[in-house]
Amino acid sequence: MNDSSTPAGAREYRTEELARAAGIPVRTLRFYRERRLLPPPRREGRIAWYSEEHLARLRVIADLLERGHTLGGIAELLAAWESGQDVAELLGLEAAIGAPWSQETEVEVSVEELASTFPGEVDADSLAASLELGYLRHEGDKLVHVSRRLLDASGALVAEGVPLAAVLATARGVRASADALADQFVELIVDQLLPDLDEPLPPGEPTRLAEALDRLRDVARTVVDVEFALAMDRRVQREVKRIGTARHSR
């Protein structure tokens, strides 16, 4: 079934045939059409005919859904594709923006193992606080700690005589400060480096931005590390002076 707009020899599919070839229900195909994720089919009377391009589009949609994209995000990517932008570049930029910063190793722990790491400190309150902070989470009948390094650091503090309740209380403040730092860096990058992503980007620009964002990860870590060390120096010196003043006043 070909007309003047269909290349000779090109295969065409009825609705049911296309859905079967793409491995999706017919209702899903119709939903994609309603959301304008697919271009209109060729019509011959009441029969809709789809091309290989429609099948390719459905396979792209399936791949993007498998990667975790929403239908709204897919629609934007497909619109960019149709406007001539390189979708692979756009996906690379999106991956660079959304790539995780943390490289922590999760570890399964039992209540008994926690009790061994924090002798006499593990109770219902400490478990609830750890779950609330997100340090621990339930996975079936197991507990998973979000970071081996944080678990070891907490254990080291408790081993030095710091109560676990105090460690967790301090963690709440550290979390708030870390969130505030992250907000500042995100605002800086969005305001100063990222263009209006709703507008078409010139060829090569998504790749350049993705590479710049990747480099800035180490820059951000360096700034936080240096500023924290300098802040500790200032705070410790103030404490040393306070202790010295208190001693001399006796």
Automatic annotation (TrEMBL):
It holds the Pfam family MerR_1. SMART domains: HTH_MERR. Keywords: DNA-binding. InterPro entries: DNA-bd_dom_put_sf, MerR-type_HTH_dom, MerR_fam. Coiled coil: none annotated. GO terms for molecular function: DNA binding; DNA-binding transcription factor activity. Residues 12-80 form the HTH merR-type domain. This is MerR family transcriptional regulator. It comes from Streptacidiphilus pinicola.
